[in-house]
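Lesson 9: reading folded outputs for more than one chain in a single document. The general rule is that every protein is listed as its sequence immediately followed by its structure tokens, and records are never interleaved. Here is the first one.
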Amino acid sequence: MKDPENPEISLEVYEAATPLERAHGLLGTTEVGEGRGLLLRGRQVHTIGMSFTIDAVHLGADGRILRIRTLKPWRLGPMVLKARWVLELDAGAAARLGLRTGGFLVREP
């Protein structure tokens, strides 16, 4: 994914596309990885069963960043009704990348 307004922001994103991939998410891992993210279709994520803190970036259908929240392990994230996707990043990665509410992330062709 890229920020069209800031070409320096670029992420290698893995989309959890199947029901099994979505159910598994980041369970059993210890990090997402620098410059990487997990993209989930939905309006809400949780960190139940996880051992590390993540940034949850809620995206609209057009890629607009609607909300960014840091979630500690064993938490239920906010339900963002207008979200179509949630991008999970290592804790602090959203700030390091300069992501902000109102900005955009788009998939590369």
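And here is the second record, again sequence then tokens.
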Amino acid sequence: MKKEFDLIVIGTGAAGSNAAQECRKAGWEVAIIDSRPFGGTCALRGCDPKKVLVGAAELISWHNRMHGKGLTGSAEIDWTSLMRFKRTFTEPVPENKEKNYTKAGIATYHGRARFLNKTTVQVGDDELTGRFVLIASGAMPARLGISGEEHLAHSDQFLDLEELPKRIIFVGGGYISFEFAHVASRAGAQVRILHRGRRPLEGFDPGLVNQLVDATRDLGVEVVLDTTVEAVERDGVLSRVKGSTHDEERIFEADLVVHGAGRVPEIDDLDLDKAGVVRAAKGVTVNEFLQSVSNPAVYAAGDAADSGGPKLTPLAGLEGHVVAANILNGNHRQADYRGVPTVVFTVPPLASTGLQEDEARERGLKFKVKQEDTSGWYSSRRVNLSHSGYKVLVEEETNRILGAHLLGEHAAEIINLFALAIRAGLGANDLKAMIYAYPTSASDVSYMV
């Protein structure tokens, strides 16, 4: 069937959903498409289910740290019941999403969208033509180009394991590998991380990353650096990973090998050339209004867009609102990427907002660096946390916060105070003068600035 709409949205994650709902509220005829269950990566295969598992890992960590310091007995993760609990969050999402779209009057389509021309996409037997099209199709694991790549499990498969394998290898040293390694190890698995570079988690402060690597190794996870994975072989239930370290070949064995080596925009099969949509490695090439530079009828947001912003769910949601504002009222709104916080949900978590130290120096900024290992501070000692620290960059002339980087208890929450300071223009003196509830992790902020 052929149908016409004001807006066609490809993807039901935060970016696509926000844009679709806002345009429908404005009276537009809207269609939304997804080839997977409705809800997007974060709610179904990413942030939300991951954090449920992390919650269990946090409890195990607390118990182990405090054993003999007021706690006795034992605690362990029951993987099957944990998965059952996780599914109470994920399983209702697709049906609820579709019901909400239908209630709002948004037409829903299941299948892979492909462009036929500048404003028409095909989904199954349906041809949909829109005045505007929003590409918000998310991301997928990057192709590694190695032999046996088909034997790699992906993050969504790990998040739905019925049983936890005894030995797991994570390929790549990014968010996914470290977060899942901390969960799997505390659930009883033997875990390795294989990373080809000298330093994992390259977007974070090097010193704090080193502390986190130490914490990860103390947990029993083998973090193997400077090792390039060249092939994966599967022999029955056993996987063998072939890697090389300084021209020396190494073989690693595991029951499961998980892809944690990065994600790329899931736009390769959309036939963008038929729509005249230019793309780059990081997504659809867009202007400051998130509009395609080569097809003004097409916009892109979230992981599918080369917008210059971090690939994070809250920013995808923001970009969805930006796109809606611009297609409804003409290009006028831009996304504000200042002070965006990001977190690696290990135990303890690693958090960051604003500029890294090398970025600030490259910009020629003059600033003071406040940094310290805080494992001896009360907030860490009371929970027997051996690895914690911070680094804060404060501009000399203005006293404004340029960047903040934290490792430790509640770092995932405290980083929001620094992000607020950056976005609201608060200076170090403002944070220092704040009266904080005590004793809390937030009360440490005044000593960090």
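What the second record shows: The chain has a mean pLDDT of 97.
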